[in-house]
Predict the 3D structure of the following.
Amino acid sequence: MKVLIAGGAGYIGSTVASACADAGITPVVLDNLVTGRREFTEGRPFYEGDIADGPLIDRVFAEHPDIDAVVHCAALIVVPESVADPVGYYRANVAKSLEFADHLLRNGCTRMIFSSSASIYAAGADLTVDEDSPLAPQSPYARTKAVCEAMFADIAAGRPLRVVSLRYFNPVGADPKLRTGLQLRHPSHALGKMIQAREEGVPFQVTGTDYPTRDGSGIRDYIHVWDLAAAHVAALHSFDTLLPEGGEEPGPGSMVINLGTGTGTTVRELLDAFNEVTGTPVPAAEAAARPGDAAGAYTRSDRAERLLGWRPRHSLTEGIRHSLEWAAVREDVLGGTARQRTVTERSGQQSDHGPSASR
């Protein structure tokens, strides 16, 4: 099997590429390197460019006519930035995804795994959700994911494209072999901020403290990125069973599957786990919620286990430990470019809320 991974030089995309390679699936990587890293593409067929670039997509398929499926991870993903720049987010995440789908159909690629997000849900009173829960995205970023899901479902209803949307909860950790991890030294998510606070010797900011959770902080379903990658491999192997092609009575052309652990962890509980792993406690300080933040949710669904034969294997503690191990080797793996980007971040020219063209 050969798979095109759009956004395959980013955090999640590169981890999916490694999991595919380990499973005997050949990854072909497409990434514009806005935040993706060239180092993450070494040893793999790589095309630098945009998912909306039709001639480039045509060349990829001309040179790799045996591509069986595409994993679409390319997106901008930072919630506060999406609030500040909704036009940029809708252009990158929705308009370009529409062009990408058209290019795939023209080249006869009919299988897509789409990186969606659990942030599109309206959480119930108990803050749990399943695939049939109502949707109520709370940020432009989340709305772009919901719009893309609906758009792909519409296309799949009338064209041969078939789409499995994997709704991610909150990835943490790194490739356990430390081949890849988060590109930015100071990412904007909670665990990244904890690592930064520990490095700088300052309190960790708990943003939002009056949510309807057991301790007032936001709640998340933290899933190890390697488990997330393994789910993509399972979905690729099961694709034609999930969404059969053609036939006298073809089934639906799209479906959604949650990827989470089924366990809700509050931000304060995450900090407690982080402090337990490090042994050097980071104090907490309360702060206002960021634009676009929500209380959060965790999955109660077992659909991924039933349909993919997949369940998460790594604990939250392992995710924290692997994140710390990656942080310790990141600049060695990424070399001088990483050090230069760190200097740029510190100068204020790019913050951890900056654009991400690859997940």
About this structure: The CA atoms of residues 244 and 250 lie 7 Å apart. The longest helix spans residues 86-106. Residues 337-357 have pLDDT under 50 and may be disordered. The longest strand covers residues 111-117.
